[in-house]
## 1
Amino acid sequence: MSRLENIGDYIIPPNHADPRLTRPVEGFDHFGNPVEIRVVEERPLTIFLNSREIVTAMTIGDWPEYLALGFLRNQGMLRDDDEVLGVDYDEEIDTVVVRTARETDYEEKLKKKVRTSGCAVGTVFGDIMEQVEGLTLPPAELRTSWLYRLASTISRTPSLYLEAGAIHGTVLCERDRPLVYMEDVGRHNAVDKVAGWMFAEGVRPEDKILYTTGRLTSEMVIKTALMGIPVLASRSGFTAWGVEIARKVGLTLIGRLRGQRFVCLSGEDRLVRDADPAAVPEEPRKARRKSAREAQDE
Amino acid sequence: MSRLENIGDYIIPPNHADPRLTRPVEGFDHFGNPVEIRVVEERPLTIFLNSREIVTAMTIGDWPEYLALGFLRNQGMLRDDDEVLGVDYDEEIDTVVVRTARETDYEEKLKKKVRTSGCAVGTVFGDIMEQVEGLTLPPAELRTSWLYRLASTISRTPSLYLEAGAIHGTVLCERDRPLVYMEDVGRHNAVDKVAGWMFAEGVRPEDKILYTTGRLTSEMVIKTALMGIPVLASRSGFTAWGVEIARKVGLTLIGRLRGQRFVCLSGEDRLVRDADPAAVPEEPRKARRKSAREAQDE
């Protein structure tokens, strides 16, 4: 293969080699023979904001600080201008405490509206829909050549997904370069870890592209829009309401991105069709194996 | 094909022909040509228990009464012996109100522990782990011939999944017969609808098998165990903690069930290996198409 040069170019690549994130599990196969399978870990992480316990998330366990920051940010509990005094992770008791200069007290908020359940961590539904109400994403360019190159690079990047399956990936990209590749048992954790990294590093969202392995549901679209990222792409499918919200906030939504194929469901105006689809190869054997894995570990 | 006779034998089959559950969405393909794709709906449903608003779930919208009952049941807010005075669904304002003879007030509970996020509706984490602590599932028999027949029947059953993708399925089974096939945008909604049906109909769990298209995470295992169902099977993968909890509560866990293949990860003692795997055909072309769909719409 050519084009492999991009694969080492991440700011944060997947933690596929971290032994703490997977574990060999014993079982018996269809013939009754003992087998050992490497599977992803899943452990609780309780997130505190100042003195308040906010949530216990089930996570593979890497980047707990980014997960905490991103979760609080995406729930609207941490503001853009909040001064974070500390993020303390205690591995022994699986907790992260985020401390802010501003006094916070989010118990009331959580008490009222609770959670949505579209295969997702809950979002404070009423509030979130209100925020999306006034939102319009900035203009941006999206070249189809970037899309194809991103999909190709990401699918060939060594990851926990390729190693052990049963996991979702979210990748923050700029033009044709994937920057940060986060994985977790839930799609939303992976996105939250990206959001936490962006918040911690003060990264601008306007020129970014978010790629996810998961389905494009309303919650995923809303989360991306609230993060200020104008483009969301996935190799998976989408729901009707996800498309509707994307159109409402002016988010460019790309679904079923595989090989030369994709569907642009919203924000077609941002698309610069500079690549000839016919010149893009179908998914290579490796990616097809990946597809089989995905099917297996949906 | 032979063995198609089973396919019409459901008490509740998938609502694949219900026009309210899908919608044509317009987009542009990779060549820039307009395309129209049928996708699943996703709409909010707010569940009330007596005078308290409990949750807003994102759902495809079928069986709202079962979803409400099952959600409340699986959250421990509706007890086995609770007398339900009414379940009122109002389509206009997307709400279901469940009324019980017993007075309930679950605001306090929700305020404290909030939600997990392993691609899931939240469970009241601390409480749930406490419940699992003392739980042991009853003995049961599981023949491998049933597993193979169930997998074959379910994969050939017309469903929203086969029609539009981007959806999860959960099937309640008894021996080799699938009884109730529920689908939804989130795995947990589909399971909750099954639980709601069981609660409404007073169905016994001890001799049942739960089949899901989704991954076997800790939350899915806990939910199945709390429902009292001793066997959980999936064509997808699993997490380490899901396996650990299954072993703890004595739940038989079957993963990666495809064609002649599967892995038994827990409760091997229940398994009666009465089928010769070598005699089971590999997945038929149609199921392989289904796998491709799954990959696409993970």
## 2
Amino acid sequence: MSIQTAGSRSRVIDITFDDTFWAPRIEINRQRTIPGIYELCKVTGRIDALKLDWEPGKEPKPHVFWDSDVAKWIEAASYSIAAHPDEDLKARVNELVQLVISVQQPDGYLNSYFTSVDLAGRWTDLRDSHELYCAGHMMEAAVAHYEATGEASLLDAMCRYADYIYDTFGTAPGKKRGYPGHEEIELALVKLYRATGNSKYLELSKYFVDERGNQPHYFDHERENRGGTPSYFEWYYNEPGRTYSHEYNQSHKPVREQDQVVGHAVRAMYLYSAMADLAQEYQDEGLAAACKRLWNHLTEGLLYITGGIGSTDRNEGFTQEYDLPNEHAYCETCASIGLFFWGHRMLKVDFDGRYADTMEQVLYNLIASGVGLDGTKFFYDNPLQSQGMHHRQTWFDVSCCPPNASRLLASLGKYVYSEQDNGIDVHLYIQNTARLQIGGQIVKLRQKTDYPYDGNVMIEIDPTQPATFAIRLRIPGWCRNAHLVINGEEQSVEAVHGYVTATREWRGGDVIVLSLDMPVERVHAHPNVRMDRGRIAIQRGPVVYCVEEIDNGSDLDAIVIPDDAVLSPVSDSQTIHSDVTVIEGTVARLDPNLGSQLYRFSTAPYVPFILRAIPYFLWDNREGAGEMMVWLRRI
Amino acid sequence: MSIQTAGSRSRVIDITFDDTFWAPRIEINRQRTIPGIYELCKVTGRIDALKLDWEPGKEPKPHVFWDSDVAKWIEAASYSIAAHPDEDLKARVNELVQLVISVQQPDGYLNSYFTSVDLAGRWTDLRDSHELYCAGHMMEAAVAHYEATGEASLLDAMCRYADYIYDTFGTAPGKKRGYPGHEEIELALVKLYRATGNSKYLELSKYFVDERGNQPHYFDHERENRGGTPSYFEWYYNEPGRTYSHEYNQSHKPVREQDQVVGHAVRAMYLYSAMADLAQEYQDEGLAAACKRLWNHLTEGLLYITGGIGSTDRNEGFTQEYDLPNEHAYCETCASIGLFFWGHRMLKVDFDGRYADTMEQVLYNLIASGVGLDGTKFFYDNPLQSQGMHHRQTWFDVSCCPPNASRLLASLGKYVYSEQDNGIDVHLYIQNTARLQIGGQIVKLRQKTDYPYDGNVMIEIDPTQPATFAIRLRIPGWCRNAHLVINGEEQSVEAVHGYVTATREWRGGDVIVLSLDMPVERVHAHPNVRMDRGRIAIQRGPVVYCVEEIDNGSDLDAIVIPDDAVLSPVSDSQTIHSDVTVIEGTVARLDPNLGSQLYRFSTAPYVPFILRAIPYFLWDNREGAGEMMVWLRRI
């Protein structure tokens, strides 16, 4: 399937969730997470830093990345306002927007750190000082703010900043041949282009992407120019086990030549997202091919079953293929959010359900886990095993993850449907009511489902008048049997590239019923994943399960799952919160009463054990939850 | 069984090995290891440091523990001379002994470091400066030198030093209430007492053992006295992951109250060895009980199947029970040598074969592994799994292990037999000819066996005249079936405390044939050892096996051992060196050709695989040996 043109991109007019899974989370995001992050931005000095009144000796000293946290909050709050009017929140957003705008310098430059803390540092440390990264996030915020409020002040300011950056960087004589050490602005510039129609921004994005990794290497050049002045993150790279290499920020070679996913995971995901955007906008087969190679490399060797990526905290990123340790998994929440973004963009480049499968895997496991049920505690790193010491926190010194998760939740409606070739693509199954523009007319869709705990999805179609178009329904990769009934008639389910397509003249009252079989599955990792050998994970539908000490006692690795043990889904409204499907079954456990002999010639006996597994995304939501484990031993 | 009195201790007049296992190793030790260590002591400055001509700025700067390496070399060389006359070696030893004696100060003090490098430091840092530790090793050397050569110059010098130490430390007014931070002198003083009959030395040993851990704590007091001066090892404790605690050197409480094996493993073993010595000498039930408690704690939760002890390099020692990681096992060679010493002494305190079982386990696995086949390369730490990066080295900065292994090999004859209650105890089965004094007469014993690869042992008894005494033969803990035939008559095998006793009037020409069944066994670790769950080790007789990449290909953890696979011993004179029994069998291996899918709902298939396991002690003796693994997955 060819790359979609920009003109055919999704047109969801509005969407409202009323399911029991996401709707409450989105409401908690609005009521607790978004106000909570604002308060923490305030308390930690991130907002006051925009007053530019820092002076030496004053604490806290602003950090180079602070503007990005403020930006992500504005973006999240804007999406929330768009989906759910909230005058108080809107007033607070607008107030903050004015403060951000006040940071802008006459030349268009807009960065609080390099305007109040390090005036001489502007553009001297692109590799580590997050200057263009912060600019990118503020551009995303500006677009969201404009779309939510119709108010263009921040958008205008960021266009001026983008113009200044355009004049500063590029291949033309007199311009700096630099590019960001932390990718982000590349995808933001595409958004800015789409919001404004100004192709300079697309061009600048393409420059940043294509300049990356060229020789002579800009970061080497920049380092020489700094002389003895260390980069902002020099202390970080000097910690034991860490060293800087160009792989860290994917600048080790030109991006079109890259076929291995390397380095810092968030950086990589933002870069690849931009590459996919540009592949779509420019119909660039070279970039599209690079994206596909990188996607395969990631999903065939670097992706945790939870949708986590980045095995180690050493580089907050990737190691070698199949190196997927569980207890020491890094799996930064932001990285999986980035993967979700990338997958969404890949659907426009290479329409295939595998991208949406990964989006779903990431969404229902890692991202859903990143925010606690009460909306005030977050995971930064998401291991697949814990001895009981790993817990969500309210904030982090580097606090990219909470506002990132918040903006995704607030904008989830953007990812359910897309429109192309005179039809609708249904990527995610979540109960909602939406209006879509298809082929010049408005179609109302009503999705009813108890997904992810139930595989039955009913979709009522209501076009303003009878119209012929295609509805493409994703058949998830985890589903072995699917049934499709339209207006009471059984249809054959022949998924092409992961979607089954129903094309007909649709009329008001038409009903699609899609039934996805959702048995409890035992998942086996590729044998090259040494850490998971002899182990299985439990999955049902898109949801990966884990066991917690609070349900199963301590020493979870003493539990073994016989291949013939029956594992059953059980609805549970008591244990954690209303409406959870847990998995139960009689399995086995090493006999804890085994005497003192350390080595023996006989097998250790097992005793029967009642297993209780909960969705991974719900772990550590109860006081005293203790140990946790995803990959369980099998016998 | 009561504690043996010192008067009944072993009297082996002489012993000569002519087996194919140890005799060649002892010869290589004499011909290559002992001269090699001398050369390295010379090259690294350890010997020249005894000239006391170091001055500031001169490199290398001596270390506080260098005297101990020289001492262990003298001790090893002396044992070797005693077992195998060697005039050149004797001359070299005597020359070095004179150099050591020249270090002695008029007051009796003898330590090269604190006489040439840090004159003000004497007795200011007992905790970390190894002063009493070096004294202890030189006392052991002096006793060995005297016994080997009859020449008393070093023994006299060390007695003068011991007298000075006696006058310096103790509970009497004016004496320091100190004791060593690295135990060793305690057991050395017992040897000095036994060699000289001077009970002051025994008394001083008992003082050091009993003073240990009392409050107010000497090491705290000493630290205050030093003011701001850091201890010798302060840099070490300040490394990430390390902190000093009194557990590190077993001074956290009085030794009689200790029931947990903690801290630095070599320190612990030397302390417990001295405690066992004192329990024997003083018939001290309190110390004996403490030793038994500590032995149980060690062997029931802290002992690797290879006889290795000390799980982590953080403290070169112990962590909690059942924490026995394989790849990151520390298992210092010296620690297991110390355990061997302790076990030998425990036999005098509590005559039970379990102590000799552990000695054998340590000897045939970890200690035999510590020295490479060519006698010039050594393991300091002995992991049970390697990704191929762990290799023997010719020397180490802290080089305690090579001379320690060398002195044990050179004195192995001391550990085969002991005499008590008018009888002979046979602890180890090694082909040899020995003369023992039993009940006033000399008995010649001839042991013929291919142990450890064959369980048949023939012992010919040849007393000078017919005499009635007991022969106690150890029935190893690993042996499920043993047969005993004396002069052609089958005997019942009823082991008491691990030994079967044959008491009769023995005459020249009497022959005992002991047959120990030696099938290939699968060993299961206690289920609390998480790292070994779902895994087995292969053992035959006392020998633990491992697999190496050179025989089995890479990715050893892809191999699985079905419970019903037949594993067979095969004699092999080709692969590594003459006369090895390897284990072979058809097992299974994960199919390496399994496509690119990272997660799937079906079990990974296995393919048949021919396994080849070699004795653990032989690993890393071939070029390109690669990965190694002891605990193999089972299905």
